[in-house]
Amino acid sequence: xxxxxRRDTPGELALRAALSALRLRYRVDxxxxxxxxxPDVAFLRAKVAVFVDGCFWHGCPEHGTWxxxxxxxxxxxxxxxxxxxxxxxxxLAAMGxxxxxxxxxDEPKSAAAAIARTVRRMLITSAGT
Length: 129
Ligand SMILES: [Zn+2]
Known about the structure:
Elements: H1 10-21, E1 27-28, E2 41-43, E3 48-53, H2 71-94, E4 98-103, H3 108-127
Parallel strand pairs: 3-4
Antiparallel strand pairs: 1-2, 2-3
Helix pairs in contact: 1-3
């Protein structure tokens, strides 16, 4: 079974609405060279990539569950997702990107505020180089 990446999940839409409310301009599902994963939200100039991680698929410590049926298969699958997330983080970091991960359970407004602070900081840093 292939895990198809769900786009425009409620968590993503809520976060995007909160970012728009802060007048931040972002790109959705931008593909970055050298990685196969697309950030859910990307700030090109600031080089900030945001992923909204589903609690189940990405092993949220609060809400992640291990299905009982086909337990071994699920364990490998979900662990694989988490490993892939860390790999994505490392690849993006190597390209000079700041990776921001938001759980789908996170409150969108406070997540957006934290992202906005990071975007502004990255823009100031890049302006100085
Ligand atoms: Zn969660």
